[in-house]
C-alpha cells in the first residue's frame, strides 16, 4: 500500500515538474530576448532620438529667427510705407493724414528699437529720416498757422504801452478764399495735425502770450482802449482805438464787456474747433481749442483782472459796499459767458470768489490806506502846529447820542464813584472844562492822525463784524506805529531842538487824552461788536504819557547841562575884586539868562502854562542853586567881593522872573512872573544869600533868630557859620555871632 501511494504521488508530481521545467526554459528565453531588446534600444533608438531632439531644437530656433526677421521686415515695410504716404499726403496738403502716418512711422520705429539684442545700423538712419520728415511737417504746419493767424505788431516789439497796442492788429484768415489752387487748408486740419504731432501746446502758448500782452492785459490796464472787430469775406480783423476824455480807472463791468467781445470773436473764427486728444483722460478724447487756450492763459488773466481791475474797484467807504453787488453780478455773468465758450471749466470761480469776498478786501484795502495815510502824517514835519484850547471844537466826527438805540443804558455816574468820596450834588455842576486838555500847541499832523482814528472807528461801526474787528485793530496799529516810528524818525531833531521836544510832548499827551475815551465813545453803537466793552485803548495811555515825558525830560537834562557848563566858566565866583574874574562871572550869568530867555520864547504858546512854568522854574532853579552852592563854598569874601557878588545876584533876581513868558500877551505874563517863588525852589534861599552879602553881623544874627528866622529856613547852621567866617574878620564880635548860630 505504501509503495502504491508513493507511485501514485510520483506519477502526479512528474507532469507538474516537467511543466515547471518547461516554464523555466521559456522564462530564460524571454529574459534573453529582453536583454537583446534593451541593448538594441540603448544602442540604436536612443541615438536616433537624440538626433531628432537636436534637429527639432534647431528648427525651432530657426523658426523664431525667421519670425523675428519677418516681423522686423514687416515693421520696416510699415515704416517705409508710412513715410511714403506721409510725403504724398503732405504734397496734397492733407495734413491730418500726413501727421497720422508720421506717428505710425514713429510707432514702428519705437517697436524696432525696443527689441533687445537686435540692433540694426539702419535704425539710426531711420531715426534721422523720421526727424527730418517731422521737422519738415512742423515747418509746413507753422507756415500754414502763420497764414491763418497773422499778428501785425508795432516795431517796438515787447512794449505793451497804449501807443504800441493801438498800432497792433490781429488778422484771422480762417475762411478759405474762392481760388481753389491757393486754398488754405481749413484751420481744423492744421490744428488737428499739430495736436497729433504734439506741437499744438507750444503754438497755443505763443498765441496765448501775444494775446495777453497785446490785447487782454492792455484792455484791463488802459481804460481808454477799445476793441474794434471788423469782418470781411475772407478775413476777420481785430483792431484797437483809444478814446479821449475817459476816467483813470474803468469799471469791472466795462472791462468784462471788452474782454468778452474779444473772446466771442476768437471763439467764432478760431477757438470753436474740436480736436482729437487721445490719451489725456478726456471724454471720448475730444476737446476744443478754447479749452486748451483757457488752461494756458486763464491763471495769468484772472490774476491781472483781480489786481488791475477788481482791487481798484473795491470801495474805500462802507456806504458804497451796497453798490458793489452790481460788480459781483457782472463777474458772475462774465464767468458764465466764458464757461459757455468752454474757455473755463465749470468749477473755475476765482474771480467770483474774489468779488464775493468784498467785505474782507474792503477791510484790507481800508486798513492799508489808513496805515499809509497815518505813516505819511507821522513822517511829516512836527513844527507845523495848531492851537488846542479847552473850548476849541476839533474837527472830529459827530457821534450819536449814547441814549439812543436799543442797548443797555450806561451806568449812572454815581455808581462809578468809589465809596468814601463825596459825590457832587445834583444841583452843582462841574466846570465844562473839567478833564479838558489845557491850551497848548500840537502838530497839525497829529490832530489829523486822531481825526483819522475817529473816522476809521466810525467806519468800523457801520461795517460787518469781521470788517469792524479788522478796522479796530488797524486803529490800534496806527497808535502803536506812532509809538515806534516818530521817536526814531525824528530822533535827531527831538534831541537838538527844544521847541520840537515840547511839541512832541504835547502830541503824546493829546493822543493819550483821546485814547482814554476813544473806545468808550463807540461802545453804544448797538450794531457793532465794539459794544461789548472789549474795544478799548486805555492800555496805550501810560505808554504815550511816558513817551512824551521822557522826550521832554531828556531835553530838560540837556538844558540843565548847558546852564551848569556856562556857570562853570564863572571861576567859582571867587576874588571878584579881580576885574577879569568879575567879567567872567558876569558873562556866565548873562549867558544863562540869555539861554533861559531863548527857551522862554521857543516854548511860549507851545507848552501848557503849568508845564511851561514848572520847566522854566526848574531850569532857573538849577542856575540859582549852582550860584548859591559856589558862593557858600567860598572861604574868603572881601567887602568888595561881597558888593560885586551882590550886584551879580541882583541881575539874576531882577531878570530871572522876566524869562517866564508862557503867553503871547505881555500883560498876562506878569501874573506868572510874580509867582516865581512858587516854581523856583531856591528863590528864597537866593534872596537870603543876597541879604547875608549886604548885612552886618547883628543883622545876620537877627535873620537867624535862634534857628526860627527866615535865614534858618533856607540855610543850615554850618552854612551860615561858613559864610560869616568868609565875610568877616576873626574878632570877638564874630565869635559872639558864631556862638549864636546853632
UniProtKB/TrEMBL annotation:
It is found in: Chromosome, Centromere, Kinetochore; Cytoplasm, Cytoskeleton, Spindle; Endoplasmic reticulum membrane. It is a peripheral membrane protein. This is Centromere/kinetochore protein zw10 homolog. It comes from Motacilla alba. Gene3D superfamilies: 1.10.357.150. Pfam families: ZW10_C, ZW10_C2, Zw10_middle, Zw10_N. InterPro entries: Zw10/DSL1_C_sf, ZW10_C, ZW10_C_2, Zw10_middle, Zw10_N. Keywords: Acetylation, Cell cycle, Cell division, Centromere, Chromosome, Coiled coil, Cytoplasm, Cytoskeleton, Endoplasmic reticulum, ER-Golgi transport, Kinetochore, Membrane, Mitosis, Phosphoprotein, Protein transport, Transport. It comes from the Eukaryota.
Amino acid at each position: 500500500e505504501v509503495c502504491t501511494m508513493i507511485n501514485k504521488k510520483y506519477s502526479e508530481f512528474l507532469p507538474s515538474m516537467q511543466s515547471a521545467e518547461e516554464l523555466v526554459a521559456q522564462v530564460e528565453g524571454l529574459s534573453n530576448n529582453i536583454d537583446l531588446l534593451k541593448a538594441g534600444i540603448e544602442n540604436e533608438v536612443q541615438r536616433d532620438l537624440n538626433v531628432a531632439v537636436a534637429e527639432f531644437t534647431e528648427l525651432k530656433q530657426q523658426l523664431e529667427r525667421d519670425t523675428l526677421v519677418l516681423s522686423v521686415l514687416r515693421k520696416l515695410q510699415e515704416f517705409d510705407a508710412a513715410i511714403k504716404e506721409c510725403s504724398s499726403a503732405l504734397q496734397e496738403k492733407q495734413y491730418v493724414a500726413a501727421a497720422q502716418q508720421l506717428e505710425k512711422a514713429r510707432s514702428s520705429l519705437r517697436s524696432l528699437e525696443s527689441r533687445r539684442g537686435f540692433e540694426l545700423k539702419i535704425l539710426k538712419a531711420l531715426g534721422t529720416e523720421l526727424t527730418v520728415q517731422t521737422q519738415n511737417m512742423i515747418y509746413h504746419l507753422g507756415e500754414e498757422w502763420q497764414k491763418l493767424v497773422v499778428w501785425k505788431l508795432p516795431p517796438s516789439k515787447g512794449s505793451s504801452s497804449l501807443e504800441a497796442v493801438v498800432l497792433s492788429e490781429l488778422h484771422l484768415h480762417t475762411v478759405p478764399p474762392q481760388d481753389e489752387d491757393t486754398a488754405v487748408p481749413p484751420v481744423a486740419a492744421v490744428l488737428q495735425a499739430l495736436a497729433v504731432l504734439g506741437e499744438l501746446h507750444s503754438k497755443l502758448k505763443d498765441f496765448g502770450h501775444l494775446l495777453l500782452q497785446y490785447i487782454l492785459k492792455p484792455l484791463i490796464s488802459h481804460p481808454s482802449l477799445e476793441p474794434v472787430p471788423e469782418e470781411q469775406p475772407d478775413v476777420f480783423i481785430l483792431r484797437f482805438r483809444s478814446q479821449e476824455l475817459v476816467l483813470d480807472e474803468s469799471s469791472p463791468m466795462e472791462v468784462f464787456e471788452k474782454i468778452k467781445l474779444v473772446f466771442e470773436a476768437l471763439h467764432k473764427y478760431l477757438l470753436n474747433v474740436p480736436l482729437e486728444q487721445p490719451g489725456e483722460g478726456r471724454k471720448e478724447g475730444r476737446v476744443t481749442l478754447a479749452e486748451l487756450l483757457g488752461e494756458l492763459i486763464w491763471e495769468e488773466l484772472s490774476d491781472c483782472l483781480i489786481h488791475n481791475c477788481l482791487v481798484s474797484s473795491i470801495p474805500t467807504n462802507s456806504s458804497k459796499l451796497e453798490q458793489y453787488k452790481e460788480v459781483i453780478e457782472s463777474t458772475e455773468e462774465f464767468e458764465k459767458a466764458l464757461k459757455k465758450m468752454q474757455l473755463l471749466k465749470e468749477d473755475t470761480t476765482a474771480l467770483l470768489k474774489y468779488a464775493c469776498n468784498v467785505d474782507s478786501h474792503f477791510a484790507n484795502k481800508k486798513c492799508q490806506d489808513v496805515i499809509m495815510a497815518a505813516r505819511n502824517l507821522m513822517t511829516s514835519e512836527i513844527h507845523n502846529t495848531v492851537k488846542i484850547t479847552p473850548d476849541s471844537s476839533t474837527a472830529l466826527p459827530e457821534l450819536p447820542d449814547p441814549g439812543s438805540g436799543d442797548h443797555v443804558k450806561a451806568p449812572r455816574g454815581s455808581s462809578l464813584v468809589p465809596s468814601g468820596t463825596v459825590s457832587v450834588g445834583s444841583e452843582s455842576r462841574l466846570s465844562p472844562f473839567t478833564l479838558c486838555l489845557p491850551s497848548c500847541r500840537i502838530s497839525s499832523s497829529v490832530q489829523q492822525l486822531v481825526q483819522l482814528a475817529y473816522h476809521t472807528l466810525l467806519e468800523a461801526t457801520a461795517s460787518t463784524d469781521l470788517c469792524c474787528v479788522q478796522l479796530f485793530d488797524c486803529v490800534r496799529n496806527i497808535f502803536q506805529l506812532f509809538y515806534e516810528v516818530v521817536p526814531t524818525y525824528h530822533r535827531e531833531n527831538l534831541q537838538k531842538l527844544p521847541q520840537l521836544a515840547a511839541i512832541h510832548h504835547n502830541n503824546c499827551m493829546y493822543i493819550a487824552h483821546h485814547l482814554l475815551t476813544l473806545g468808550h465813545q463807540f461802545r453804544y453803537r448797538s450794531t457793532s461788536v465794539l459794544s461789548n466793552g472789549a474795544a478799548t485803548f486805555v492800555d496805550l495811555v501810560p505808554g504815550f504819557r511816558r513817551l512824551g515825558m521822557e522826550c521832554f525830560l531828556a531835553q530838560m537834562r540837556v538844558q540843565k547841562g548847558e546852564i551848569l557848563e556856562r556857570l562853570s566858566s564863572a571861576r567859582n565866583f571867587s576874588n571878584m575884586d579881580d576885574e577879569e574874574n568879575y567879567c567872567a562871572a558876569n558873562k556866565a550869568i548873562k549867558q544863562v539868562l540869555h539861554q533861559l530867555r531863548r527857551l522862554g520864547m521857543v516854548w511860549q504858546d507851545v507848552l501848557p502854562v503849568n508845564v511851561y512854568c514848572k520847566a522854566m522854574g526848574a531850569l532857573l532853579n538849577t542856575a540859582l542853586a549852582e550860584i548859591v552852592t559856589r558862593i557858600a563854598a567860598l572861604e574868603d569874601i572881601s567887602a568888595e567881593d561881597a558888593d560885586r557878588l551882590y550886584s551879580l545876584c541882583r541881575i539874576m533876581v531882577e531878570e530871572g522872573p522876566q524869562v517866564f513868558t508862557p503867553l503871547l500877551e505881555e500883560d498876562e505874563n506878569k501874573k506868572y512872573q510874580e509867582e516865581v517863588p512858587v516854581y523856583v525852589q531856591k528863590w528864597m534861599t537866593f534872596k537870603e544869600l543876597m541879604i547875608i552879602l549886604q548885612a552886618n553881623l547883628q543883622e545876620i544874627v537877627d535873620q537867624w533868630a535862634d534857628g526860627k528866622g527866615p535865614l534858618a529856613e533856607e540855610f543850615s547852621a554850618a552854612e551860615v557859620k561858613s559864610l560869616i567866617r568868609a565875610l568877616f574878620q576873626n574878632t570877638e564880635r564874630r565869635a559872639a555871632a558864631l556862638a549864636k548860630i546853632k
